[in-house]
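Could you show me some protein's one-letter sequence and the numbers that encode its backbone in two labelled lines?

___
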Amino acid sequence: MHNKITCFLPFAEPADLKQTIDELQSVKMVSQIFVMTTPQSKEVQLPKGVESFEVPAFNSTRMVNEIAKRATGASFVLLYTKSLPLKMGYLSLERMVQAAEYSGAGMVYSDYYALKQGQMTQSPVIDYQDGSLRDDFNFGSLLLFPSDALIGAAEKMHKDYKFAGLYDLRLKISQNKKLFRLPEFLYTEMENDNRKSGEKIFDYVDPKNREVQIEMEQACTEHLKAIGGYLEPDFKAVKFDAVEFKVEASVVVPVRNRAKTIEDAVRSVFSQKTSFKFNLIIVDNHSDDGTTDILKELAAEDERLVHVIPERNDLGIGGCWNVAIMHEACGKFAIQLDSDDLYSGDSVVQNIVDAFYAQNCAMVIASYQMVNFKLEEIPPGLIDHKEWTPDNGRNNALRINGLGAPRAFYTPVLREIRVPNVSYGEDYAVGLAISRDYQIGRIYQSLYLCRRWDDNSDASLDIVKMNNHNLYKDRVRTMELWARILKNLNS
């Protein structure tokens, strides 16, 4: 093949760097290799034919610009994003180039093998969509760009990001070209993050990453403006007296087989002190572990507990929510509580309802504390989603992977939108849809204890389940992005 590839890789420990360079130099299509250093990098002797250049930081705009300067002499640019050793598969770069030529894509990525603690496992990635706006989207560590696509996108990058340069690059490329996944395992990368999936999903709310998140939000917002998906801070007013309800609020708890935790959850609701009437609607999704008997006893103890067993057998968590909000006993505001979690005090329901009126919003999201089963705080502690701002929160919501808890809804709006009948991401989908037209209110103090234990739905997921979850949320974002583009076109 006549195509040539210029490769770029970050500085690494000498032995690791040599292994990666040896792998790449064995490929005939590779014409040049550059090692990117930072001011903190140690001096290292590079093999013959390998050059280096300094960038202020990896993933920065300056890094992208320096790559673009050196990309003109070859047909393709290969970027390796890890400092650990890379092992190429047989004829894998040739295959990636072929995929780029066949698809006309602006970037090609592939499935890969992960070598972790001596074990090599398959790590499939997922297809990129219009709504794949997460800055933590996993492309794997090996990215192939047609040089003209990378250079063209770099020319449109006008902001100087320290952290969001590579994110900005792929957003710019996606505006005109496909980002194409090749579902073949083409290389092996080393993995040194041994945390469970449930421990990784909160990285973006870690306070130490705040500066990074600000840049990512800026890059995403700029992208949304470019493609017509940005929404100005102009919201519909909420009229809270439009419909009459028997009670002011209902706490909604979908449950299936939570005999170990359901009584604690119920009693945290019973303990609430309010200036208005409220009830508790529990949709018992055909439990068979004793949960139903516990709920019958609790309902006999307090008439505020409305115990509902749906006739249908095909309901996920979202479907159970629909049963609750459509029930005649549902109040003006529907407030979430998961069956294995607790409210943190006796004024939670009151505080949430007060926030609806004070902020004139159709949804309220508070903050929560991560705890173990002994109610001891565990990392990352408080999840407050302070990245949400009244003016840009609903745009940034398309980039982050969750909106927080506990969540509460103005029931007439939720009845109109309804909840997807799934058991993951249903709350996120509803939040996005509501935020398209209405303001979402925020409470930044902790009102909720999220108990992390082995039976949690996202405590530790395998790669297939994680991919399915991410694929679904990306699909939700895609639909929401398209809806917002149409909203702007029709306004």
Remarks:
- The chain has two domains: 5-194, 249-490.
- The chain has 15 helices and 18 strands.
